[in-house]
Amino acid sequence: MPELPEVEVVRRGLERHVLGATVTGIDVLHPRAVRRHVPGAHDLAAQVVGQRVAAADRRGKYLWLVLEPAHLALVVHLGMSGQMLVQPAAAPDEKHLRIRARLDGAHLAPGTELRFVDQRTFGGWALAPLVDVDGTALPDSVAHIARDPMDPRFDAEAVVEVLRRKHTEIKRALLDQTVVSGIGNIYADEALWRAKVHGNRLTDTLTRPVLRRVLAAAHDVMQEALGQGGTSFDALYVDVNGESGYFERSLNAYGREGEPCPRCGAPIRRQQFMNRSSFSCPKCQPAPRSTRTR
Q1: pLDDT tens, 3-49?
Q2: Active-site residue 276, yes or no?
């Protein structure tokens, strides 16, 4: 699934291309694309048509458009393969086009469309009221999500204290979006590699300086990935113009099983973790004794 850098790339593209545009029409072409909007496709279209896109916002891996004057959030779930593409009306429909929104704005060419394309149909659109959470307007469906390391108001020390009170693997904690958001499997592995910490180390056994190092590494690796358009392993992860990111070339651990660690040369090792794969260096990131025994 896309993680923070990939979602931020999409958010910036939407901000650049559709901010200020008015939605003049919506076609829902697949019912699963609006299954999270319980009242259904007709209700979503009725509420969105005529609204102006006032902002494109994100928290962690969650993305939404702020619609005015209704003061609603159009929450976009990218799922495994969701794409938000800005296209001219004359462009041929994509094979897996699920929703088409027609836009009007002085900065847009006539007939510009915002298209939601989703091959695997795990994503979709839904409307949610905006609520105030610590001075930030969030969709109520996102209100439980913690701030991410790239949020200007992210409090690393508060997250360190939360981690110190937990008794769980550090990688599991990094993937918990109620603790710190935006970090998925790829960037968790990369941050832990940079911090020289094995993902199975328990949070309450790690010192505060080590936990700070992990969070700082998560921030840095996602910032670098953002600068390269995110990580694209296939054609499903693209920005609003359909272009892929290229941070995959800069990964040090994730997906590098058997390759030499860029730091020490030991072969990168893969292990199962939460029905996923974790990648780490056995020399730079020694596993806790219990894990080595198993």
Answers
A1: 888 899 999 999 999 999 999 999 999 999 999 999 999 999 999 99
A2: yes
Each residue's pLDDT tens digit, 219-260:
999 999 888 877 654 555 556 666 655 456 678 999 999 999
Out of 3, 6, 8, 113, the active site residue is: 3
Is residue 21 within 8 A of residue 104, CB to CB? The reply is yes
In whole angstroms, what is the distance from residue 185 CA to residue 191 CA? Answer: 10
CA angle (276, 75, 219) in 5-degree steps:
50
- Active-site position among 2, 5, 139, 149: 2
**Collapsing DSSP states into helix, strand and coil, what is residue 247?**
helix
Return the number of other C-beta atoms located less than 10 Å from residue 151's C-beta: 18
Q: Of 39, 243, 260, 276, which one is the catalytic site residue?
A: 276
User: Tens of pLDDT along 267-288?
Assistant: 999 999 988 899 999 999 999 9
- Cα–chain-centroid distance for residue 202? 25
94 assigned to active site: no
Based on the residue annotation, tell me whether 2 is a catalytic residue of this protein: yes
Distance separating alpha carbons of residues 155 and 148, to the nearest angstrom: 9
Contact residues for 180 (Cβ-Cβ < 8 A; gap 6+): 146, 147, 148, 149, 159, 173, 174, 215, 218
Residues 146 and 179: their CA atoms lie apart, in Å, by: 6
d(CA 123, CA 120): 8
Are 183 and 216 within 8 A, CB to CB? no
Given the residues 11, 58, 59, 61, the one annotated as active site = 61
Q: How far apart are the C-alpha atoms of 242 and 118, rounded to whole Å? A: 13
What is the set of domains in the chain, with CATH numbers? 4-142 (3.20.190.10), 156-287 (1.10.8.50)
Q: How far is 86 from 80, CA to CA, in rounded Å?
A: 19
